[in-house]
Amino acid sequence: MKKMATMLAAVAMFGLAGKAMAAAPADTLAEVKKKGVLVAGVKDSLPPFGYIDEKSRQIVGYDIDFVNAIARKLGVKVELKPVTSASRMPQLQEGHIDIIAATMTKNPERAKQIDFSHTYFFTGQKFIARKGTVKKVSDLEGKKIGTAKGSTSEQNVRRAIVTANVISFDDYPQAFLALQQGKVQAITTDEAILAGILAKAPNKSQFEIPAVQISDEPYGLGMRKGDKNFVDFVNRTLLEMEKSGETKKIFNKWFGPSTQFHLKRNFALTAD
Ligand code: GLU
């Protein structure tokens, strides 16, 4: 009987130690160097942030170029894992990915659960609707609006248009399909994502992005909470890339004058 009690106590202690180990702050920087690969959670259907290139069949885009630059600095390979807006934080917290580079807005609510890098992209939330149907926010009252589950877009639109019937899809291409089929009257997310969707649409002349913005959306790379060495490394790398002009080069490659977006970079990457 005494032996049994000792054994139970040992099991309980072992269990506690196991828990304490799991809760210890991660040192992703050391782990990534050791395993020789940086595993990044990225979007795979949102040009120009993360999408499958038709020729190479590889995932490419603005987000991917940041991951590649960080991995190059670390001297490791990259593995890209597609995530959705809803799955990206659990994937990171459960250790399936080391970093999120997936059109992710940094905000105080999310920052309670994960850490964010300095802002590496800046956009704002808008809509796609059939041409001429939306001139101001109130034109969307009581309408069906498509967006993605687990996104700030979903939260913002519910707040901005309380009478709207918000329908959430796994990702934005599915929401746009619903718009094309007349199942929703508009879709909503960040303007840069909407522009990418519209650019690829065969019937794009029927749709537009009205000048109606309901939020600002600064993007950050997501890392595990308290993973200080890694967060510091990523932020240092981003600031170096800004100084050398690499961040601007990446912006122009995906959004600049030689692309269909013709965007000017209206932000600088700074320590924040
Ligand atoms: N940037 C917004 C967010 O983080 C919308 C885009 C997305 O769903 O990734 O939720």
Derived from helix and strand composition plus strand pairing, the structural class reads alpha/beta
Give the second-level CATH assignment, the architecture of the largest domain. Answer: 3-Layer(aba) Sandwich
Largest sheet: 6 strands, mixed
Molecules bound to protein:
glutamic acid
Distance between the termini: 60 Å
Question: Would you mind describing this structure in some detail?
Answer:
With 272 residues, the protein is α/β, with parallel strands linked by helices. 40% of the residues lie in helices and 22% in strands. It has 2 domains: 26-120 and 220-255, D-Maltodextrin-Binding Protein, domain 2; 124-217, 3-Layer(aba) Sandwich (D-Maltodextrin-Binding Protein, domain 2), CATH 3.40.190.10. Helix 3 (62-74) packs across helix 9. The longest helix is centred in the N-terminal third of the chain and has 22 residues, at 2-23. Mean pLDDT is 92; it is low at 1-22. Glutamic acid binds next to helix 6 and strand 11. Glutamic acid (GLU) binds next to helix 6 and strand 11.
Provide a compact summary of the structure.
This protein is of the alpha/beta class.
